[in-house]
Amino acid sequence: MLLKIVKDWVSSSNKLERLWLLAKIEFKLRYYENKLGLLWALLKPIMDIGIYYVVFKTVLKSDVPAFASFLFIGLIIWNFFVESTTGTTQILNTKKYLYEYSNMNKLEIYVSTLFSNSIGFFFNFVMFLLFYNFLEKESGGVSAHILWAIPLFLNLFILSLGVSLILSNLYVVAKDISQIWQVFTSFLFFLSPIFYSLKVFKEALPSFDYGNPIAGIIINARRVLMQQTYPDYELLIWDFVYAIFLLFLGLIALNKLGSKAAEKL
């Protein structure tokens, strides 16, 4: 059954066109009733950066170089992960009309939602590149290491998809999972190197960069985009192992629990 889920999705016709259409519709609807519309996709991370910059740079006197850019890349990676996982917890309920009354595979619904979040991530990532390379005084300019952003984002996407599948299918049998996940992500937020330098992070939490896949992605993103060096290959491999393992568990959950979603939710 697990192989059938993947096979059905891969063999379905016009899947990329359908996924892209759904992603665009969802992205636009998210900001439809707001006065500023799609501008919120760009303004929200900037507002977050402004708040944390004042707290950690001005009040707590953080000595991290290029702190605004340091925060920027950490926050957009974190926000993508949280939006993709928290926003899909109830997806089998809120979008059951798509798999009940159409020939859509359940996996397509998840992927299209993450594609929608990827649109916002892309805009924010471009803003980061413009800010860091043209406005940040400590920038070293654009280098070929930026291409490492592609496998890092793929890692982030697979990780988010795997966690989304696990959470949303657990929600079918235990609705408390949404509240538990919100508390857990709040805890994990401060255990990720979003505000702290790598040295401080490693001193406080030795080897935790290997136990927290989001931490590894953020660390490697800063290495390739800000330090213009190669990623930590060992950390990169570990993060991909985490992501693929969680995706595998998520597909098993979709196979075991997803079929019961319509009747239980």
From TrEMBL:
Coiled coil: none annotated. The chain crosses the membrane at residues 36-55, 67-86, 107-134, 146-173, 180-198, 235-254. InterPro entries: ABC2_TM, ABC2_TM_bact-type. GO terms for biological process: lipopolysaccharide transport. The keyword Lipid metabolism does not apply. Pfam families: ABC2_membrane. It is a multi-pass membrane protein. GO terms for cellular component: plasma membrane. Its main location: membrane. Keywords: Cell inner membrane, Cell membrane, Membrane, Transmembrane, Transmembrane helix, Transport. It is found in: Cell inner membrane; Cell membrane. Signal peptide: none annotated. GO terms for molecular function: ABC-type transporter activity. Residues 36-257 form the ABC transmembrane type-2 domain. Belongs to the ABC-2 integral membrane protein family. This is Transport permease protein.
